[in-house]
Amino acid sequence: MTEPTSTPAPAPVPVPVDVKHQASPWPLRDKVRRAGWMFVQALLFRPSFHNWYGWRRFLLRAMGAKIGRGVRIRPTVRIEIPWNLEIGDESVVGDHVILYSLGKIRLGRKVTVSQYAHLCAGTHDHTDPTFPLLTPPVNIEDGAWVATDAFVGPGVTVGAWAVVGGRATVTKDVPPGQIWAGNPARFIKLREMRAE
């Protein structure tokens, strides 16, 4: 009887102990704006009544976001940097969604982002010992649906009328009209649309 062979674990890459993380990439002006948004979000956005969509659109536009007509954003949505956010007409962003807009996040027209979904436009270069910030954009095209608790990572485009299933983890582009689900997300089938 032969004993099973095991593959030895790779040796860790030596990193100098004196390497520091990258200094903040944000200029003072952006730091002040972000602090202002923290107060607006906590004192005016979050406590607003659930159906005060116009009020929340007004606040976001005042902070530099590009918000289309008829957009419905729930009061529990967390937005990191509103001036990096663009949302097209008649799109809906559900309760407790995280729009981590360190980079640009763009939602097209008639997009639905369901509760607890996380769109993440920020990461770090793990190959650089200083761990610099990277901000690849997230783009959700017209008519797409990001379902409950799904994660869409930096640099990802979800194509028009595509669906990202509940709790899916998407780290690469989803082509238009396809349904993807799972962790990691994979193609399930084409989205079939009924005529109105």
Could you explain how this protein is built, in words?
The protein is an alpha/beta fold and 196 residues long. It has one domain (28-190): 3 Solenoid (UDP N-Acetylglucosamine Acyltransferase, domain 1), CATH 2.160.10. The protein is built from 2 helices and 19 strands. Strands 2-5-8-13-16-18-19 form a 7-stranded mixed sheet. It is flat, with a radius of gyration of 20 Å. The N and C termini lie far apart (67 Å).
**Proportion of helical residues:** 10-25%
Main beta sheet:
7 strands, mixed
Strand order of the largest sheet: 2-5-8-13-16-18-19
Radius of gyration: 20 Å
Q: What structural category characterises the helix and strand content?
A: alpha/beta
Q: Count the helices. How many?
A: 2
Percentage of residues in DSSP E strands:
15-25%
Order of helices and strands: HHEEEEEEEEEEEEEEEEEEE
> Which CATH architecture?
3 Solenoid
Topology of this protein?
Layout: H1 28-45, H2 53-62, E1 66-67, E2 72-73, E3 78-79, E4 85-87, E5 92-93, E6 98-100, E7 105-107, E8 112-113, E9 118-120, E10 123-124, E11 133-134, E12 138-140, E13 145-146, E14 151-152, E15 157-158, E16 163-164, E17 169-170, E18 178-181, E19 186-190
Keywords:
single chain; alpha/beta; UDP N-Acetylglucosamine Acyltransferase, domain 1; 7-stranded mixed β-sheet; 5-stranded parallel β-sheet; 2 helices; flat
Explain briefly what this protein structure is.
The protein is α/β, with parallel strands linked by helices. Helix content is 14%, strand content 24%.
